[in-house]
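Report of the visiting student (M.T.), summer placement. My assignment was to run the structure pipeline on a short list of targets and document each run. The first record concerns EGF-like domain-containing protein.
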Amino acid sequence: MKVLVVLSLVGVASAGFLERWLPSIFQSACKSDSCGIHASCFDIDGKPVCVCDIGYYGDPNNACFREGATCEEVSCAAHAQCFMIEDKPNCVCEQGYQGNPYKGCSKPEPACNPSACGANADCFSVNGQTVCACRPGFLGDPYKGCTKPEPDPECQANSCGENADCVIRDGKVNCFCKNGYQGDPSKKCDKIPEACKKCGANTDCYTLLGQAVCTCRSGYSGDPYKGCDKPEQCLPDSCGENASCFIFSGKPTCFCNLGYIGDPKKGCTPLIGR
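After the run finished, the structure tokens were exported:
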């Protein structure tokens, strides 16, 4: 059996002879279009191998011709023409087409489809597929649109008001009155009168008949002469069942609802029936 296979590869045995004698399993890897014109396919170790038929020569993967063949005897695929090259007929795809001139030539698909990309994105062809990418300096989804990222905030000379300092916190510009000054740091901070130095942190001071009057700033609470803090907030589900949260003395505190008693942090039960 191995001798027959070797003979077929050199063109001695006919394709019909081998097909009659080789088991059908040897043709399992071959398909109808595996080989070219005037060539037969054989399964060798699970791989299709093409061989020119007896009396024909050439490239069995594309086309085999008899000695002395001319273009008149050759049928090229659509959009392909035959030319005599080195006294042998050869099919060539027409200009603007590509593919196998013995099986079929077609116009190549556009390498890129710019309309598939969004704004500020460039189109590239990768393995015949359209791939979009944001241009340098832009971010986002290249298929929807790319934008320039906002620059990181910076403290400018006019970011804050007079006698105020600028600090970047959490990616934002924050203004603070300088030590010994008070007021609106975004507009202007005034020097704290000597009498107002008795006020605590986060307070505003007013002088009345030479005496300091301290008040907590908006959004703060506490003793303005010791210091004011932002009140804590009631968080969802911070209290037990049948209990509610209230800010009491600047701190969130749980109370049983009216008509209920118990531990408001764990849960309250109806007063009736106890």
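The helical segments are 2-9, 15-21. The first helix runs from residue 2 to 9. I thank the supervising group for their guidance throughout the placement.
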